[in-house]
Design brief:
Oligomer: single chain
Structural class: mainly beta
Strand content: over 45%
Order of helices and strands: HEEEEEEEEEEEEEEEEEH
Number of helices: 2
CATH class: Mainly Beta
Largest sheet: 8 strands, mixed
CATH topology: Immunoglobulin-like
Strand order of the largest sheet: 5-4-8-2-1-11-14-13
Radius of gyration: 23 Å
Number of strands: 17
CATH architecture: Sandwich
Length: 252
């Protein structure tokens, strides 16, 4: 009798392990493959609220190229931020949301080689990827931290390292804040209340490298421009040490 009970318990335990293993596997994000469409360029616009603890409005325009013979939807990686509207080449489009996925349906299937632009307007507080925290000076800050595939929590994208694309950032923040982002600094405009910063990265990069930062820190340009100009951002308390910390190392 005891042997039979042991066998029954063993079978129950094995079945439970299989069940939980399947549940965990289904809960994990599936590995993306770049085979139906490929992003070419991301144009990301972000506006932060006065406290810099939320994105008051955002828009990401994704220029993409169709790779498959026929594509009826664009399946984007995207987190849980509220969506205000979705457009395809300027026309409102139907969309559906699943677990960390945004499916955008085309009015008519696109053929291989076609290019189009998908635009997503959204807002809110991302679950991950863009980290809101106090900096070393105790002031609010927002910093992109996307590795390895967390950019989709705040930028709708094809969040896979092989899906490289160019990117531009236009960031609006309270006037007292400094902004840095990928690529070349282009312009700084604004008014007494709000600054508008623009950066452009002309070379394709993976999505995990698409980052920006907003804080009340100091922006410093490296003095040595013989190779690559380094533009870095540090807390105000580190503005004197910053140039030393980022200076060129001694020859090996």
């Amino acid at each position: 009798m005891r042997l039979r009970n042991n066998r029954t318990f063993t079978r129950f335990l094995a079945a439970s392990l299989i069940f939980f293993s399947v549940a965990i596997a289904q809960a994990q994000r599936r590995e993306r493959t770049v085979e139906t469409w490929r992003p070419l360029h991301y144009d990301v616009s972000l506006s932060f609220n006065e406290q810099v603890n939320e994105i008051s409005s955002a828009r990401t325009d994704i220029a993409l190229k169709v790779l498959a013979p026929s594509v009826a939807k664009i399946d984007l990686d995207f987190g849980e931020m509220p969506i205000d509207s979705v457009l395809v080449s300027g026309t409102p489009a139907r969309f559906e949301r699943a677990s960390e996925t945004l499916n955008v349906f085309l009015l008519q299937p696109a053929k291989r080689g076609e290019t189009l632009t998908v635009s997503i307007n959204y807002h809110g507080h991302p679950k991950d990827g863009l980290v809101f925290a106090k900096d070393r000076d105790g002031n609010p800050s927002a910093t992109g931290d996307n590795w390895p595939n967390r950019v989709h929590y705040w930028i709708p994208s094809l969040d896979h390292p092989s899906a490289k694309a160019t990117v531009s950032f236009t960031v609006s923040a309270p006037q007292r804040y400094q902004v840095v982002a990928n690529g070349k600094f282009v312009t700084l405009t604004g008014n007494p209340a709000t600054s508008h910063w623009k950066f452009e990265e002309a070379k394709p990069i993976p999505t995990y490298s698409m980052v920006d930062a907003e804080n009340e820190g100091a922006i410093i340009n490296s003095r040595d421009k013989s190779v690559t100009n380094v533009r870095f951002n540090v807390p105000q308390r580190d503005r004197e040490y910053g140039p030393k910390g980022f200076s060129a190392a001694a020859p090996a």
